[in-house]
Amino acid sequence: MSSKIKILPDRVANQIAAGEVIERPAAVVKELVENALDAGATRLEVEFRHGGRSLMRIEDNGAGMSRDDALLALERHATSKIAAAADLDSLSSFGFRGEALPSIASVSEFSIQTREASSDTGTEVFVNGGKLVHVRECGRAVGTRIEVKHLFNSVPARRKFLKSDATESAHIIQGVRLYALAFPHVAFTLIEDGRVIFRSPQCETLRERVAGIFGKQIAENLIPIDAAEGGMRISGLIDRPGSGMGRATRHEMITYINRRPVDSRALNYALIESYTEHLPKGRYPVAFVFFEIDPAAVDVNVHPAKREVRFRNETAVRGFVIRNVLDALRNAQGGLGGSSGTGDPPVGLGGMAGTAAQTPPTFAPTPRVTPQVQTHGRVAHATQPIQSAGHTGGSPVPPNPPEPRPIENRKPEIGNSTWRFLGLAHQAYALFETSAGLVVLDRRSAHERIWFERLQTQFRSGEVPSQRLLLPIPIELDAIASALLLDRLDFFNKHGFEITEFGRNFFRVESVPAWMEPADAEPFVRDLLGALRDGRLQEKNIDLARDELARLAVVKAIRLPAAASEAEMRAMIGQLLACKTPLTSPAGRPTYFELSLGELARRFGR
Questions:
Q1: 388-393 long-range Cβ contacts below 8 angstroms, 24+ apart
Q2: What is the pTM of this model?
Q3: Which residue, of 51, 75, 370, 552, is most buried by count of CB atoms within 10 Å of its CB?
Q4: Which among 293, 480, 474, 516 is positioned nearest to 390, based on CA atoms?
Q5: Is the pLDDT of residue 344 over 70?
Q6: How many Å separate Cα 504 from the centre of its chain?
Q7: H or E element: which one contains 458?
């Protein structure tokens, strides 16, 4: 009787491992770039085509390998990085599992050419879908060249999960830039579809490198941090307090541990806590933080792709980071941590000393245009001014409220005619006397509900009023955000914006929705792209996408004045009760609650 349990062939085992390690082309580039850096490369060239689907080539001038080592490197769990389990406690290299090369070779056409300094000739190994095709001598300089063609050709189902070429390319570009930021002494070249798109020579300062990789708009608003204590060191650049409202996602909060780009909960939460008094809840700082610690004090053997790490003493790490980030923020507020001078710290182990980069050109504020409102190509004269952040008159109630609809779950005895305005409490709450008792209304929640349903109506009708700007607003994005925007320009432009590409990763906002202040355009576009990256704004369901867009928009549309007249509040109540869902804000918060006469009597012991 044959056994039901069998040992998987090596080829199948490698393909299963590839599912954990190789999620997309960017993961291949990441593993091969790390191998090149571990080999001591000082020059590294990365080339890819069609988002990495058809070709990825990584060539370096590192130590190279002998013929035997080149063949062993394609075996599972073969590595030069560790020899015993105890070595995991003192890792100083990126790789150590010995899974990357065999996993990649099992799902692609894989070739490697390599030569070490002690050999006169190199070795070429070619593997197709996990099957060894040939091994032969070749001529090449010292170092290694790896080509990966037709990724996932042996597992076509995996290819269906890849995104567009632009999106996959953006992930590759972003990954290479992260390592270029951490290794200033290594010359990086990145080639996409035969065109050099990124060349990273050695830079003098971290600010200069950040400006070159992530844009001058980001770099100019960062302050330096550099501190050491108890075997730990933190250095880098972090968001200047008061420079803006942060970001809606953590995608520009980048952390390194011993020069390894990681997603560390301890570091992320420490940064977020440090900015509690400087950013609203749900906003995140822009940061490029390099944290150094004894390798024995951090566990990188947590995730197959090594995205996450775990500290032996997370409390100590968190406290150290919070203390020193708070010190840097206080110094900046006191005028000691400006972006000019020699305040930039060295970068981790890379030794990047600091002077500030040149200040980029500034752009004059864009005047707000209200006399004319565009609605997809035609211009309609506005019958009354559109309320905006600059409006200081009455409450920003949308004109022409929607027609009244049946209100579900609304008590029939509460109606606009029976509500008498008593006044405002703490500027945030409106008090009304009714025949049934007392109503407390949250002004912001009520206005958000009104604006939310108004924007929903505009989005559904395809007639979104917009204003053309006298001076376009420039936006510089990272590679991933740029690809997302390019793929969805039509969606943006159908919902009140006019955004045009103006160079690689650079855009201009020509028009904005009528309810938006021009100064809010850049952060709002970045927030929308953050929602796309997090999966909160899905274009596959256009109604859900429009709802999420409206939720984000109401935050920018509402600017409550400190005072409000009875006429304005009664008008707002009329619009609220005409909404389809008047009892809650778009975020699910109550818009008002009632204290009945009976409840008031009980409170006073009557």
A1: 388/515, 388/516, 388/517, 388/559, 389/517, 389/519, 389/520, 389/556, 389/559, 390/517, 391/559, 391/561, 392/561, 393/561
A2: 0.64
A3: 51
A4: 516
A5: no
A6: 18
A7: helix 443-461
